[in-house]
Design a protein that fits this description.
This protein has helices spanning 2-27, 55-63, 73-93, 160-163, 269-276; strands spanning 29-30, 70-71, 95-108, 116-131, 139-150, 178-190, 195-202, 237-245, 250-258, 279-288, 298-306, 317-325, 332-343, 350-359, 366-375, 384-396, 399-409, 419-430. A hairpin with a 7-residue loop joins strand 3 (95-108) and strand 4. The radius of gyration is 21 Å and the shape is globular. By secondary structure, it is of the alpha+beta class. The protein has a 16-stranded antiparallel β-barrel. A two-stranded antiparallel ribbon has the order 1-2. The protein has one domain: Beta Barrel (Porin), CATH 2.40.160.10.
Length: 431
């Protein structure tokens, strides 16, 4: 009975959301020109450490004024005091923050298990510059609190691929662990920002093997086109990392993190980090056109090593990953990525991905297409192939929707089926 009530409640929430969107759309007018000012709250100098999924980069992206498909002048004007207040907090105290809610629904055909999943993520994240605001050597506290949950389905999108016999993740990040603390670290910039280091509760995927299309909230959804599936990146927990520009074009990144981190149990972080001594190490060297475009124009090689995890019964392992991506005319982003792992608990032993993203400069719409070949670590399983295409549409100023289609050939754990289709729809509200 409890399950039936939850399912009914979830369906009612979805219906209510759809009806709301339909009503609001009927009242909207087409957008034709760029709004003034260019930013909502003045978040133009957050100095992110990491890729587009990092807290600083997300703040800067959400701060951009878009030219959406539809305009609601009354709503935009009503929200302007909110963004002005955020801007004042940043100007007066160096405190910048964002709120967002992202929902994802997916369905898959030919699944021997569950064939649909829906989930949502609420996030509160920010950056508080405590020292050095008037210099290039800032010290900041970075934080992020999340709630990840299912929406009226038996499983979350992160588990849908495994239900269908696909050893991969079709809905990256959309789990159902509830409340979690995923960022709480000190970020220090030195030498006028050419050197940065962080220490505290970190999310390794914010700065490990990054490129311009690595954000699961706004870009690709399948893991093979995000953090390389040959890298067993740990969950959020205690860790440290550094990044430095060795020259104007060559950079290095390295760090370590607790392989047993659990964002839902921050009280256990010190125990697992200092007593278990099971760590994930990584080092990267890369070339970029400039420090300001480090994850836009980027060619790099990443090496990693993971200690044995005794309780999880996962052997130690190592691997290499290569990535090349370039932002051509601030519009096209072709990419080529490859990785290899020798144990360590990675989803794939070998992987090669290629594709392209196309950005619309004013609306900030984004089209992405990717192809992947992957070889599972079990030699008895067949190679599998994955394709994904999505269109992120900036529907209104603060709401984007992303239809997404994934096609999987030879799902390794479902030998009775040659292909799987995964259809998804993501919606993200950012304030």
């Amino acid at each position: 009975m409890h399950k039936m009530k939850n399912d009914k409640s979830g369906r009612l929430q979805v219906v209510a959301l759809v009806c709301t969107v339909i009503v609001l759309t009927s009242l909207a007018i087409p957008a034709t020109a760029q709004e003034d000012p260019k930013t909502k709250s003045g978040y133009e100098d957050i100095h992110p450490f990491g890729g587009p999924s990092s807290t600083g980069a997300q703040l800067e992206e959400d701060n951009e004024v878009k030219v959406p498909l539809l305009r609601f002048p009354a709503i935009d004007n009503a929200l302007r005091p909110w963004f002005d207040w955020k801007g004042k907090l940043n100007k007066d105290y160096g405190f910048s923050f964002g709120l967002d809610y992202t929902a994802l629904g997916q369905v898959v055909n030919n699944s021997p298990g569950e064939d649909n999943a829906a989930g949502g993520i609420f996030r509160f994240f920010g950056n508080w510059t405590v020292i050095g605001r008037d210099s290039g050597n800032t010290g900041s506290i970075v934080f992020k609190v999340e709630n990840r949950h299912r929406l009226g389905t038996d499983i979350a999108p992160q588990n849908l691929g495994f239900e269908a016999g696909y050893p991969g993740i079709t809905g990256t990040a959309f789990s159902d662990y509830g409340w979690g603390l995923t960022n709480l670290y000190w970020k220090q910039r030195l030498n006028q920002g050419r050197i940065s280091f962080i220490a505290g509760a970190v999310d390794v995927t914010d700065y490990l093997d990054i490129y311009g299309l690595i954000n699961p909230w706004t870009q690709f959804q399948n893991l093979v086109f995000l953090t390389d599936p040959t890298i067993p990146a740990p969950n959020q927990g205690l860790g440290a990392a550094f990044g430095a520009m060795a020259t104007d074009n060559i950079y290095v990144v390295g760090g370590l993190a607790d392989t047993n981190g659990d964002p839902t149990e921050p009280g256990d972080w010190f125990d697992t980090f200092f007593n278990d001594h099971e760590y994930f190490y990584h080092f990267e060297v890369g070339w970029t056109s400039s420090q300001e475009r480090i994850y836009l124009d980027n060619i790099h090689l990443t090496g990693w090593y993971a200690d044995e995890r005794e309780d999880a019964q996962v052997e130690d392992g190592w691997g290499l990953a290569f990535s090349a991506a370039w932002f051509v005319d601030d519009t096209w982003m072709p990419f080529l990525r490859a990785g290899y792992s020798d144990d360590g608990g990675a989803l794939l032993e070998a992987s090669v991905s290629a594709g392209v993203g196309y950005y619309f400069k004013e609306s900030k719409d984004l089209i992405g297409f990717g192809l992947n070949w992957g070889r599972p670590p079990d030699s008895g399983l067949d190679d599998q192939y994955t394709a994904e295409v999505f269109y992120r549409l900036q529907l209104v100023q603060n709401l984007a929707i992303t239809p997404d289609v994934q096609l999987i050939f030879n799902p390794a754990l479902n030998p009775d089926e040659d292909t799987l289709w995964v259809f998804g729809l993501r919606a993200r509200l950012a304030l």
